[in-house]
Design brief:
The protein is mainly β. Helices cover about 5% and strands about 60% of the residues. The protein has a 22-stranded antiparallel β-barrel. The longest helix is centred in the first third of the chain and has 7 residues. It is found in: Cell outer membrane. One of its GO terms (cellular component) is cell outer membrane.
Amino acid sequence: MASAQFSIKGKITDQSGQALPGATVSISNPNVNTQTDNRGLYTIDNLTAGTYVIKASFVGFQPVTRSIAVNGNQTINFSLSSNVFTTEEVTVTATRANKTSPTAFTNLSKKDLQKNNFGQDLPYLLNQTPSVVTTSDAGAGVGYTGIRIRGSDASRINVTINGIPYNDSESQGSFFVDIPDIASSVNNIQVQRGVGTSTNGAGAFGGSINIQTTTRRDTGYADISSSAGSYNTFKNTLNFGTGLMGGKFAVDGRLSQITSDGYIDAASSNLKSYFVSGAYYGNNSTLRANIFTGKERTFQAWNGIPDYIISDNAIPNHRTYNELGLMSNGQRYRDQVDDYLQNHYQLLYDRKLSDKLSFSGALHYTRGKGYYEEYRNNDLIANYGLKAPSPASDTTNLARRRWLDNYFYGVTYALKYTPQSNLNVTLGGAYNQYKGAHYGNIIYTEKGEGIPPNYQYYRDDAKKNDFNIFTRGEWRLGQVVLNADLQYRRIDYSFLGLDRNLNNVQQQVTLNFFNPKAGITYVLDENSNVYASYAVGNHEPNRDDYTNSTPSTRPKPETLHDFEAGYRTSGDVFKGGINGFYMLYKNQLILTGALNDVGTPIRVNVDDSYRAGVEFDGRVQATKQLSIAATATLSANKIKNYTQLLSNYDDNTQVPLFLKKTDIAYSPSFIASGEIAYSPIKGGEIALLNKYISSQYLDNTSNTNPAGFTSTGNNRFVRDRLLKNYFVSDLRVRYNFAVKHVKNIALGLQVNNIFNKEYEANGATYPDIEGGQVVNYNYFFAQAKRNFMTSVTISF
């Protein structure tokens, strides 16, 4: 009997019975650690008879330790109670939805992210969540990437890191390329769809991505990870942590480098980053300081590929052609790059003031500086405020740098009061200030032309103050949960822009927004509920909207009325839900389909538009070894009474195109994803991941032409103003095992686009009228054909 082998298995839950995926279960002699799966289940095998001390722990909960006498297979379940003052989650839960919130959301754990983290940018790790579309300028997910949720672009998706705004204050985009490999320092992410809960920063209009970085780990660790694959892509990461020292202190850190040539010609990336975090854990408080930095240098690929080239299979590089940086001599300008450094400093404080009251606050400071450099063929000297040497030489070949030098700092806070177990109220908010200098220098000119070295030809200083305060309450009355959420936000923005006389002058804009939200949830049981909500979101125009207009033509702020209703359930076999949404917009700033000179979408207001649809997501644990997951979104995305003007170069007029109802650009009507994962052996998994995106229009005309005009047929390669539908499959293989003195060795293989599909995930269009026909000047962002990444991670 003494030599017999036994096992201990069980389930880890919170006090409400909700499973805790990723919880740690350990015994000390022998030293064995394991984690619970997505159902909260764990198994420890190969134990001989004897007495063991088994410990269950999970970040944010009190650990539980038991002494177990083993003389046969046993089932040991643990129920963990919340530990407020060490969770470090007050900071983020103030802006997060919970399982009874009337909001559509998806939670991703560190384990979920690690499975797919081979070096691609963070949006690609969210690709299997509902209603998400991802794009890559370089074609393979390294470098500049994009994400849309329910058709809303990144400027409408609020991103916070530990409750601190990450969206750029002026452009409102989130550039994850500036913090490469941040996923390796993330503990969990919540993706909300729709207006969602009140949050800090701009962009909470179409969705939210709420990121929580590294949190407490009680034992020391070191992870060395390397990945290599197609297009000379390499990723090297070192993660380390001291664990809890003296019961009070912990330090965590990460160093990363990612390099890639990119799928598109010359679309290379050289990305470096580090993350350092130190924490102090008191009896009733936690103080954590985070410093993280990203340095990116990427060759520009933001124009896309002309449709006549991408469609011409006779051209050898027809899918990878990059026109940026091509000089008059046919050579490529080697410094046609985007070069940017961003430093983040965060000081986070959480305190349990009493059994009913807790506080979290944060100070933050972000410093960014960088430029993009470009070669210009035959550029007009007059464009730079200079006089040409002679009328015959009014143009020159030159290189210029356009700089962004900015500061962003502020404070966030949340005070949570729980007077009784069925009632809680949160008061939170933030005050942030942004200062940004935009200026341009001429680096050199081909012939000199008397231009001084490093001549500064423009400068624009901007300042933005952003204040918000919100209160949110949740009251449970039997099986009914009532939610109310009120936010006030004030923005003061100063910028250099055109006045009514078309002179560039410093201008000031002040906006005041009130964003109320209310919802009701009916709890069917501890694992299932139905809900409904109504929320209002307001969103300001971005920098380009202001600087490219005059006061009389200035875009208006957007307003969204968001109606949501759904059902969700979480069981041992099935976990998922269905959600319906109706998003009614006033003055929505829609994408026109055109890009400006740095690849940023151009926008205009439309008076009346909407998005309506149904989302489904679910996961079935068919057997212990087999799981099947799927998401699907079916939607209608429409503009009412839309007019677009097309330039007629035959007579220099504007031809109007009026559409009573039309489709919103970049808004596919059907989005679906699926994952089939099978574990044939312990520690091993093979998964097939699929993604389908239906066709989507590049502009808001639904590919309709003005009356009396047809599209040109002179070039058979010219396409409609349309992104074709695509279905792409990826294969992921993981195997984990341990050897003496090494906690874990993880081997991974990811084969993307295994069926070698040719497709484009993004594009731009510039239609006009020439020779009596509509000519479509389309540009597409081709995505990589079959490619792969391998990885090995060694954990000590």
